[in-house]
Design goal:
Layout (H helix, E strand, L loop, with lengths): L2 H11 L3 E5 L4 H12 L3 E6 L6 H11 L1 H4 L2 E5 L5 H8 L4 E4 L6 H6 L1 H22 L3 E7 L22 H20 L3 E6 L1 E3 L12 H10 L4 E4 L5 E2 L1 E3 H11 L9 E4 L5 E2 H12 L11 E4 L14 H7 L7 H18 L10 H7 L2
Parallel strand pairs: 1-2, 1-4, 2-3, 4-5, 5-6, 6-11, 7-10, 8-13
Antiparallel strand pairs: 9-12
Helix pairs in contact: 1-10, 2-3, 2-10, 5-7, 7-8, 9-11, 9-13, 11-13
Bound molecules: nicotinamide-adenine-dinucleotide (NAD).
Length: about 350
Amino acid sequence: MGHYHEECLRLRAEPRRFLVTGVAGFIGSHLLETLLRLEQNVVGLDNFATGSRENLSEVLDKVGPKAASRFRFVKGDIREPSVCRDAMTGVQVILHQAALASVPRSIEEPMTFHSVNVDGFLNLLLGARSAGIQRIVYASSSAVYGDDLSSEKTEDRIGRPLSPYAATKLIDEIYAGTFRRSHGISSVGLRYFNVFGPRQDPTGPYAAVIPRWIEQLLCNEQCVAFGDGTASRDFCSVDDVVQANLLASRAPEHDDSVFNVGSGTRTTLLELFELIRDGVAPHQLSAGNAALRFDPPRAGDIQHSLASIAHAREGLGYEPSADLALEISETIAWHASRMLRSSRAAPQGIAPTLRSEHVT
Ligand code: NAD
């Protein structure tokens, strides 16, 4: 039996109270869904800066009223000490996801990013001591590897940050380590690589590549790659990120309690585009012939990013699922269904089978 399966059984046997910050966002909403399914009590904190009420309603509808009754939502800002204190009441474990998360936006708005990502995190660390929190698991990022040129990123070797966003995540790691030593706050940092899955926001100028391309292909619009398409990323399913968080909520703590969370495999943008195009084609006939347009690389972007997951395997018992094509096709199905559910007009040429399956 895998470590994750064992951890799920343990949680069911001894439920705990979790605080999920950023609960209305992409990753936070998946943590909420899994925790409620595992019969845990969850407090969620969010100010809807980038998250949405729709994400919360989708989760609560999916898990049903009994599980939903174990959820308390606090609308508020992690920068407000009184809001954090209220949200932490009776909580044992914090899964901290709230942050502003876009590299290009952080170059335009560094002060806002510092205030949310660093001041907000400090607030939680300060509140955690008086609230008697047993463990804070916090979202860091592969962005901390910056200009390190190693083909595979290992936790003990980072470069210089290339964006204010990366700097905020690195500062968070430094503060978490400092508070472990100075205040006895137990924490584990998770450096997520490129996470994808249902409920990731496809809209706006800062959307991540997978939801953006999926929706553009479904709408028969042009997809754009920054650079020549040979840049590569480690695309990690959101289910694996949930797994890493739950394992980290109880794993033994060490002074090097920062772990990569990725799939451990490299995919170029060109390969990704092919996978998405093939997956969208059954839903949108025109996608089969779609081609990428190549625009100049953006400031702050890195060329290659691949996680070594050896440390997470050993320290957490983390074992990612290894089927990118399947996970992408599930994500495509969610976007297709979302587009049909929303008031937005169905794109021309969308396959009739999908219409009848998803319109209720
Ligand atoms: P997201 O934008 O969907 O979620 C972030 C959530 O935090 C949103 O619901 C937002 O409203 C909330 N939030 C922002 N500022 C807040 C504040 N001041 N007070 C309360 N809530 C606030 O992003 P996500 O992709 O779910 O990312 C979650 C975490 O994972 C972030 O810390 C991000 O930096 C990190 N991360 C994500 C990825 C990825 O690929 N998605 C990769 C690396 C790291």
